[in-house]
Each structure stands twice: as structure tokens, then as C-alpha cells.
Amino acid sequence: MLRIVLTIVLLVTGLVIIVEGCKSPKEEDKPVKTKSAADDFGKIDALPVEYKSPKDNLSTPEKIELGRLLFYDPILSGGKDVACATCHHPEFGYAESLEISIGVNGKGLGEKRVFNKHNDIPFTKRNSPSLLNVVFNGIDNDGNYFPDKAPMFWDLRAKGLEDQATFPVRSLEEMRGHSFKEDSIAAEIAKRVDKIPEYKQLFKKSFSECDTVTIGYITKAIATFERSLLANNSRFDKYMRGDKNALSGREIDGMKEFIKAGCARCHNGPMLSDFKVHVLGVQDNEKNVVPDSGYNKTLAFRTPTLRNLRVTRPYMHSGKIQTLDNVLLFYEDLRGKPPPNKSVTQDNLDSLAKMVKVEFKNIDAIVEFLNTLNDDNYDRKIPDRVPSGLPVGGMIK
To answer: Which of 79, 127, 175, 395 has a CA between 20 and 30 Å from the CA of residue 269?
Structure first.
């Protein structure tokens, strides 16, 4: 299959799209010119049509459906009031429409979600990221990725979905609450699930060797479901796979301006993310009792994917930017104004961020291009019931 990539070459305004092919022998003999960071504008590409699973947790239809039930079952939370789906709901592209989430001791869904009247639980620290295409986290420009090592969270503290799934269960504000200690909640959750006959049967069907449900089996099932959440056939993907009618001329212009502005230096590859951390100086969320210091207390956060932005607002790790236009205005301002985060100075800003040159006149076209990265045809199936008998999705109604 011919793989089409984007490479930047300066022509008049400085940009053309070319197809990467085999080099002729004469080209191979030419000396290679080393590119500086300023010369390398980055590449973007289509997502793979199919996905891979870790060798020790291969995907099956039975595991996916078991993982779906667990994803929507609040039995996994300390107070039996929060499910994974509470903050990662299909209505919001498996993200959430709040700036930062309300987990334990809350009620309602999305912007209607509030804490209960008597509350001593903090907000979660960061904006809830989308789980769509999360299977491709870490994918590089050549389409290589390793599901068991995939970078997770805004601060990269987990590798792979199996590892990631244990963190919310142990987190005080996300799912644990005050009723259990961090080192005992996982065993409690496994014990609860193991006592439910329906779950016992489903686990045995999905994992033939499973005689006793453990947190390891639970996270494997959830990870299998999350891997199946694909949105990998956007108009952009179709265009990059060869359908040149998939994008309008205006959208192609927006794509060129996106790359010319330097956005693809970080937002590159099939997921439009380098999955590295960068200091941008984004405004912290005032709901945080303690300011968010990011990755290793460096005020750096992982580059998010730009896919399905239509349904995954608000944006940035703190959720403080509500529209794509304002995200681009934020980058335009980085060149001359102090960063909104008072703990970050111009000297602290990431070197690649300083090189971004978004021009106001091009913002509308770039937004039009970003909207071609949306794929609305993703799995929205919500189970009618969960084996625990608890409210599906937690206290979201």
C-alpha cells in the first residue's frame, strides 16, 4: 500500500505536498544535508486502518464486551458512584466537556455535573483526554507503535492501557474516595467483581485461565475495550490514503498553513502528536488547590492529539481554552506576550513553541483543516445494564 506523507519544501510561499517514494541511485549518492529544528516542519499522515494489541492481551469480541461493561460499571469506584464512563463519555468523544473533571461525590454528566451538597473531594487535576484512537498513542511518522509501551496521561506517568487503567481506581478524586486507602482499593474492587456470578462467567469466557478475578484481569478487559474505540477514517485520512476529493481547496490551504506555521513540529505523525512534553505556559486552572506543575514538576505537558476536536472541547491540559480559534490565538500571542501561566517566562518556553508563527489571517483556514480530522463514525454503544445492578455510567443522571 502506497503511504502518503507530508514533507515541507520551500516554493514561493514555501510549501508543497509530495509523495514519498523510492530514491533513485543517483539521489542516494548525493550528500545528505542535516536539517535544523527550524528547517524541519514535521510530517502528518493517515492513521492505520487496523490496530495492534499487546501479545499478552490479544483482542477478542468477548474481551471487548466485558471491558465495555466494566467501563460503565461504578462498582470499580470506592463509593460505587463513579465509572470510567463518567469522565470519558461517548457523547463527548470519550472525553468530557468540563475544564477539569468531577469524579467522586458528584452527579450529572458533562457541563451539568456538579459536586454533591456536602463535599470534601477536590476536582481532578487536569482536563479529561479523549480515548478515541488511544490505541495509537506513541505512533511515529513511520507508523510504528508499541501498545504495551504507549505513553499515557498528560504527564506520561503510565505506559500502555493496562497500566493506565489502574491509576483512576487508586486516585482519591477520580474513583477511590475516602472510604479506602490507595494500597487497598484494587484488592477491594477485584473482590467485589469476583463475587458477581455474571462477571465470573464473562471473565472465564474471556480469559480461560481466570478462576479468580484480579485487578490484572479487570484492567486487561478495560484496555481491550478502549483499544477498540477507533475514529480513524476522517476526511483527512481518506485524503492521505489517496482520495484527493476528500478535502476542499480551502482545507488543503489550511493544512499547508498549519505546517508552515510550525504546528506540525510537535503535532506530527498519524495522531498529530509527538507524544513528548513541552512547556507552553498555558493558564493553570483556578480550581486546583495546588498549582499543576506537570511532568516531573517542570510545567511541561504532553502534546495532545488533534483528532476529533469537534467533540472533545475544552482544550489544553487545564481545559482553559474553549475554542479552536482561541487555541490558535494563544499560539499567536506566544511570540510577543508573557505566557498566561505566571510561573512560566518567555525564557522557560519550549524552543519549538517559540518557533510557532501563527498569523491571524490564516486562523480560519487552519481551523477548517483541523475539522477534517474529525471522524464521527465511532462506537457509541452504551450497555442497557451492568452486572452489578448499579446505575450505568455512575451517578450521571
So the answer is: 127
Distance of CA 380 to CAs 47, 219, 361, 377, Å?
20, 21, 37, 9
Fold exhibited by the domain 36-49+247-371: Cytochrome Bc1 Complex; Chain D, domain 2 (1.10.760)
> How many helices (H) and strands (E) would you count in the chain?
13, 6
Encode pLDDT of 241-281 as tens digits: 999 999 999 999 999 999 999 999 999 999 999 999 999 99
Q: pTM here?
A: 0.90
- Asked if the bond preceding 54 is cis, omega within 30° of 0, the reply is no
Return the domain boundaries, the chain.
36-49+247-371, 61-227
C-alpha torsion 122→123→125→128, nearest 10: 150
- C-alpha of 171 from chain center: 19
Domains 36-49+247-371 and 61-227 share a fold: yes
HSE (side-chain half, CA atoms, 13 Å) at 225: 28
What's the pLDDT at 336? 84
CB atoms within 10 A of CB 161: 27
CB atoms within 10 A of CB 208: 8
Task: Give the DSSP H/E element, type plus range, for residue 359.
Answer: none
Q: Looking up cell 502518503, which residue turns up? A: 4
Domain 61-227, what architecture?
A: Orthogonal Bundle (1.10)
Q: Is residue 127 within 8 Å of 262, Cβ to Cβ?
A: no
Show the beta-strand stretches assigned E in the chain: 106-107, 114-115, 151-152, 158-159, 277-278, 301-302
